[in-house]
Amino acid sequence: MIVKSAQFVKSATGPDHYPDTSFGEVAFIGRSNVGKSTLINGLLGRRSLVRTSRTPGRTQTINFFLINEVFFLVDLPGYGFARAAKEVRKQWEPMIRNYLSGRPNLKAVVLLLDIRRIPNEEDIRMLDWLEEYGIPTIPVLTKVDKVGHGERSSQTGKIAQSTALPKEAFSCFSSVTREGREDIWDRVENALG
Ligand SMILES: Nc1nc2c(ncn2[C@@H]2O[C@H](COP(=O)(O)OP(=O)(O)OP(=O)(O)O)[C@@H](O)[C@H]2O)c(=O)[nH]1
Ligand SMILES: [Mg+2]
Prior knowledge:
The protein is an alpha/beta fold. 33% of the residues lie in helices and 22% in strands.
């Protein structure tokens, strides 16, 4: 993928504010702080088009980025951080469910999992929703620079087991080494058709 242009188009909390176009889009979801915004920046080769943070809960709205004037990458707010304001937490589920169930433009969701952690209830629930809504899913293990080779293999095995996905289903990504960029782009492009 050659990224000729990438621009932030808008933030939305509900369907009224989604961009009114027929462009295909691929969205990024996962636990707060797992590296969604960082992965999007890494794919685009931009350091900070998408805001990232050490503080979980940085992204609180659905953010649409228009790429090469023909498709969108969509940064979704993460789930599972206790310190979020109650209001934010209450709004999260309907906001995400509305988006997943009511957006025909959505061609696939990239589900991010931290390679160092065993997926929790919320990760599994997210996988269930994606299946329920029939959305093709691209599972990605993030922050692979933080583990050695042996641990990478054993963690991938454990994560595969707990998600009931084959080991081969997972792409790896590191924003430090940029490993996985081409592989993930191939899968994203495939999904966009
Ligand atoms: N070493 C390393 N750090 C990473 C990687 N990806 C993300 N990080 C760091 O993890 C932190 C969180 O990254 P974000 O991209 O903001 O995470 P997010 O999933 O968008 O978080 P929310 O918006 O809060 O849901 C930042 O400090 C990143 O620099 C990676 O591949 N390797
Ligand atoms: Mg984010």
